[in-house]
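2024-03-11 09:14:02 DEBUG pipeline.ingest accepted 1 chain
2024-03-11 09:14:02 DEBUG pipeline.ingest length=149
2024-03-11 09:14:03 DEBUG pipeline.predict start
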Amino acid sequence: MHIVTIEGVPYDWLKQLQEIHAHVFDGTKLPLEKLESKEGLICLLAVENEKVIGFKLGYTHPDGVFYSWLGGVHETQRGQGIASQLMRRQHEHLQTLGFKKVRTYGRNERKAMLITNLKHGFDIVSTFVDHKGRHKIVFEKNIGIGVLS
């Protein structure tokens, strides 16, 4: 398995990215227009035998913090540390771009991701209820030089 890092929309991998997104998020579509609308989009793909088995997407939030937006691993590949590898690689790449902080949101229904965030040094900084009535947990992590875990 290797990780491909793409700044901007991963057009060459788009079909596979949309397929793995639908697999991870119960059939939910990831429209090209939504990807194209994200300023500073960075896409990391876990690839095995030219097939995408995991992904991590994020973009620059208007306040200058990098927002780690979406990610997941195919259910047949879970439990092998792929999500952790994607997260570490994302943070390393963000450091090279000068980012000092990463933010992500989690939900109680996705406990594995909550645990992964905590294991990788994220702090819970707040909670809120989104426009769909779902409770969200806000995680942030400082990734300045010397604090990467």
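2024-03-11 09:14:41 DEBUG pipeline.report The domain at 2-142 is CATH 3.40.630.30 (Aminopeptidase).
2024-03-11 09:14:41 DEBUG pipeline.predict end
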